[in-house]
């Protein structure tokens, strides 16, 4: 090994480290990040994650309670929520954050009646209520409008056999059918269920609430399924004449609310992937420093990966509304594109970290699991191009 090779990986910082981002510049936000990092250092990590995911709930209730207290209101701002997701992604912490705060809380806020919001949002903020969004057929990415137009496909059953059907019973509603790949569906205390109502001729997709707290809910069967990423527990949920409550009131733009939630969720998923990608890259750097022999090629490879992760991070926080005047703002239109970049960065860094051994396997599992559930990457990019009018500009 010559002097240049040695210097490449024995210097204090062999690859670029992230510069302070606008999302972390305020002292209040710095303190928020420090509080999250301290909590996760205490309650999360490879061993604690393994123990937590092996429990019936699939997460550490104490960590969730303390994390909820740190996060505060269920309507936490997008930049702060992105910081929280980046930090939990960095340690792959199993928690109901994604299913409860990122997916369910915005739908409750957008569509819920005043009584429903008053009943559920304070409990979500306190960490005493967890939620899950259940859509039929494992079509979560499409239902959220991430990989296609959720108004143009019968992802929820179309009123025919299959999917989840809702029928009025005089006192409320009853649900019939099955939803697969439901994040935290085995343990959530409140299910938000996308179902078809009105039969084939007048079918429309509505959202329903199923109160699932307690050991035995009549007509509700929940089965936890094996997962590539144990920190993302999933379940198959069956509804057999299950009592449900309509979320909000008709008429409501349910599909529009799902799509808006999907765009914001893409930003938070991207933030998680950025945190995980940086952690995987740090593992790869540590291994490269310890190796004997020529290191120049490894240094260049790791530098390229660091640039990829930081580019994804910049795009993620821009999508969260931190780019200033003229930027994407809180509309999250670039969320799916940020998610595509972040998932690619996570996949690449996880593969690099896996070179020495399987210690980084959880990062590879997270990358594969998220792309299967919320991708594929090409679908995210195509949908982002469609929404921003890129195809129309090229055609013109």
Description:
This protein is an alpha+beta fold and 396 residues long. The protein has three domains: 22-98, Butyryl-Coa Dehydrogenase, subunit A, domain 1; 131-255, Butyryl-CoA Dehydrogenase, subunit A, domain 2 (Beta Barrel); 258-395, Butyryl-CoA Dehydrogenase, subunit A, domain 3 (Up-down Bundle). Helices cover 52% and strands 14% of the residues. The chain has 14 helices and seven strands. The chain has helices spanning 3-10, 27-43, 46-53, 61-71, 78-90, 97-111, 114-126, 140-143, 254-290, 296-322, 335-353, 361-374, 377-388, 390-395; strands at residues 131-134, 164-168, 173-183, 190-197, 204-211, 220-225, 234-246.
Record the SSE blueprint.
Layout (H helix, E strand, L loop, with lengths): L2 H8 L16 H17 L2 H8 L7 H11 L6 H13 L6 H15 L2 H13 L4 E4 L5 H4 L20 E5 L4 E11 L6 E8 L6 E8 L8 E6 L8 E13 L7 H37 L5 H27 L12 H19 L7 H14 L2 H12 L1 H6 L1
Q: Main attributes?
A:
396 residues, alpha+beta, Butyryl-Coa Dehydrogenase, subunit A, domain 1, Butyryl-CoA Dehydrogenase, subunit A, domain 2, Butyryl-CoA Dehydrogenase, subunit A, domain 3, 3 domains, five-stranded mixed beta barrel, disordered C terminus
Quick summary of this structure?
This protein is α+β, with helices and mostly antiparallel strands and 396 residues long. The protein contains 14 helices and 7 strands.
CATH-assigned homologous superfamily of the largest domain: Butyryl-CoA Dehydrogenase, subunit A, domain 3
Helix- and strand-based class? alpha+beta
User: CATH class of the largest domain, anyone?
Assistant: Mainly Alpha
Order of helices and strands: HHHHHHHEHEEEEEEHHHHHH
Count every beta strand, where a strand is a DSSP E run of 2 or more residues.
7
So, CATH architecture of the largest domain? Answer: Up-down Bundle
Instruction: Report how far the terminal alpha carbons are from each other.
Output: 55 Å
> Shape from CA axes?
globular
Low-confidence stretches: 1-17, 322-331, 391-396
Strand order of the largest sheet: 2-3-7-5-4
Oligomeric form: single chain
Task: Tell me the domain tally.
Answer: 3
Q: Do you know the CATH topology of the largest domain?
A: Butyryl-CoA Dehydrogenase, subunit A, domain 3
Radius of gyration: 22 Å
Percentage of residues in strands: 5-15%
Q: What value does the average pLDDT take?
A: 86
Helix proportion: 40-55%
Number of helices: 14
């Amino acid at each position: 090994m010559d002097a240049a090779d040695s210097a490449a990986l024995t210097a204090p910082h062999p690859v670029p480290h992230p510069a302070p981002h606008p999302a972390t510049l305020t002292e209040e936000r710095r303190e928020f990040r420090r509080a999250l990092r301290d909590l996760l250092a205490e309650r999360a990590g490879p061993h604690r994650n393994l123990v937590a995911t092996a429990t019936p709930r699939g997460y550490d209730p104490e960590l969730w309670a303390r994390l909820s207290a740190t996060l505060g209101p269920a309507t936490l701002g997008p930049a702060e929520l992105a910081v929280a997701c980046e930090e939990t992604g960095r340690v792959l912490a199993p928690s109901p954050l994604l299913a409860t705060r990122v997916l369910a809380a915005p739908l409750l806020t957008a569509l819920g009646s005043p009584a429903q919001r008053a009943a559920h949002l304070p409990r979500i903020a306190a960490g005493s209520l967890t939620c899950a969004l259940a859509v039929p057929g494992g079509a979560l990415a499409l239902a959220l409008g991430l990989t296609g137009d959720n108004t143009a496909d019968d992802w929820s059953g179309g009123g025919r056999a299959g999917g989840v059907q809702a029928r009025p019973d005089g006192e409320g509603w009853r649900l019939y059918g099955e939803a697969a790949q439901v994040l935290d569906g085995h343990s959530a205390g409140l299910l938000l269920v996308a179902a078809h109502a009105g039969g084939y001729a007048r079918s429309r997709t509505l959202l329903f609430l199923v109160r699932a707290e307690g050991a035995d809910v009549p007509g509700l069967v929940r089965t936890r399924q094996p997962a590539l990423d144990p920190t993302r527990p999933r379940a198959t949920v069956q509804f057999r004449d299950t009592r449900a409550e309509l979320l909000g009131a008709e008429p409501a733009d349910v599909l529009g609310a799902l799509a808006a939630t999907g765009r914001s969720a893409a930003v938070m998923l991207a933030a998680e992937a950025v945190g995980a990608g940086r952690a995987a890259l740090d593992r790869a750097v540590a291994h490269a420093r310890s190796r004997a022999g020529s290191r120049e090629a490894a240094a260049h490879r790791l530098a390229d990966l660091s640039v990829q992760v930081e580019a994804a991070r910049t795009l993620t926080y821009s999508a969260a509304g931190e780019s200033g005047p003229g930027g994407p703002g809180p509309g999250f239109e670039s969320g799916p594109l940020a998610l595509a970049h972040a998932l690619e960065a996570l996949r690449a860094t996880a593969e690099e970290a896996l070179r020495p051994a399987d210690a980084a396997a959880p990062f590879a599992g997270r990358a594969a699991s998220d792309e299967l559930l919320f991708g594929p990457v090409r679908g995210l990019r195509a949908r982002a191009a469609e929404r921003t009018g890129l195809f129309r500009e090229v055609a013109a």
